[in-house]
Write a structure and sequence with these properties.
Layout (H helix, E strand, L loop, with lengths): L11 E7 L5 E9 L2 E8 L4 E7 L5 E7 L7 E5 L4 E3 L13 E3 L8 H7 L6 E9 L6 E12 L2 E6 L4 E8 L5 E4 L3 E3 L1
Parallel strand pairs: 8-9
Antiparallel strand pairs: 1-2, 1-14, 2-3, 3-4, 4-5, 5-6, 6-7, 9-10, 10-11, 11-12, 12-13
Amino acid sequence: MSGLSALPADGWTARWDGWDGEATEELTLRWENEAWTASGVVTGENIQYVVRLSPLWEVRQFLLFRDLDEPDLWLGTDGVRWGEVNGSHRDELTGASDIAVGCTPFDHVAPVRRLGLEPGGSATISVACVDVETLGVSLRERRYERLSERRWSVVDTSLDIVLCEFGVDDYGLPLDVDGAFRRR
């Protein structure tokens, strides 16, 4: 995507504080085994997640940990079909290209880096949204709009509401997510 720097070969860590002071998120991105691994810890929700992404920032695997050593939720995709660790297919998620864990800053990293939008451009994507309390997963449509070189907006198209706006750093990672998180 134009205007973004390549992430450092040895990885990158970003931290955010919740707007209300109740939560934090720490995200570490690492290049390993010819793909990206995103590892995050979100306080307030008391969760940890691991997302494996292709070199082109396509989600391939998602693990959510709440209070167990083993994942509470494991989802994987070949880019079309989604399934669980036990081999069960999740046909209701067909078409989802991204994963969202409650509108955390990480939710926006892969779309911003992958979509390749120019300022003024937009793209609608399907997102598998995870409810961390129930472990329910639902398919939602989100429109990413690149407002300027460093500013984005995300719209829930079914509700026709702006979920958030945020600026990005040189790597395409959100800075402040309006009303939700502030970058440290």
